[in-house]
Amino acid sequence: MAGLARKVLPSRACLPGLIAPGAIRAMDAIDRKILAVLQEDASLSVAEIGSRVGLSSTPCWKRIQRLEAEGMIQRRVALVDQDKIGLGVTVFVSIETGDHSRAWLANFAQVVGAMPEVMEFYRMAGDVDYMLRVVVSDIAGYDAFYKRLIAAVPLKNVTSRFAMEKIKSTTALPIPPAPARP
Q1: In the chain, N or C terminus with fewer CB closer than 10 Å?
Q2: Quick one: CA dihedral 126, 127, 129, 130, positive or negative?
């Protein structure tokens, strides 16, 4: 889906029957409330979600299905405590490369994408080219990861920063309010 432009259309109530297949409808305040509730607890029943946003079950379910079909809800997952499963070390890894070709990036993205320790992977602007968030069990686990990384792809510089304490961590995005109507 990357690279494909999708139309954002007004609410279905404004244009009944005129929503093109695959088009994304503009979100209203109820859609935004549904997203906020689901980000807090996706295990709630549709009836409970509807109750919290002011809808009965069927309209609520239809909105959730539409939000999923449009890709606003990507998936529903369980959040696992990394410390309780023995992955208590978080490392932020800054990477600089001397090669910025498409072929190098494709190879690098494939190699890093296949490493299960990598939780997040970004291409950056500024003094580093890429940033990874890596979770491992201990320093020896990070050393093994580091050795696999540098053996797989030529890199100019790798800087590792070990998190001492997690002060805030959330998966819930701040849902912006619906735009004011003119």
Answers
A1: C
A2: negative
CATH classification at residue 70: 1.10.10.10
The answer on 158 and 98 residing in a single domain is: yes
Please check whether residue 84 lies inside any domain of the structure. Answer: no
Distance CA 83, CA 108 (A): 28
Phi, psi dihedral angles at 137 (to 5 degrees): -80, -35
Instruction: Please work out, in degrees rounded to the nearest 5, the angle formed at the alpha carbon of residue 50 by the alpha carbons of 45 and 51.
Output: 100
Q: Are 121 and 132 in contact (CB under 8 A)?
A: yes
Cβ partners under 8 Å of residue 105, min gap 6: 123
Do 94 and 153 fall into the same domain?
yes
Q: What are the pLDDT digits (tens) for 28-73?
A: 999 999 999 999 999 999 999 999 999 999 999 999 999 999 999 9
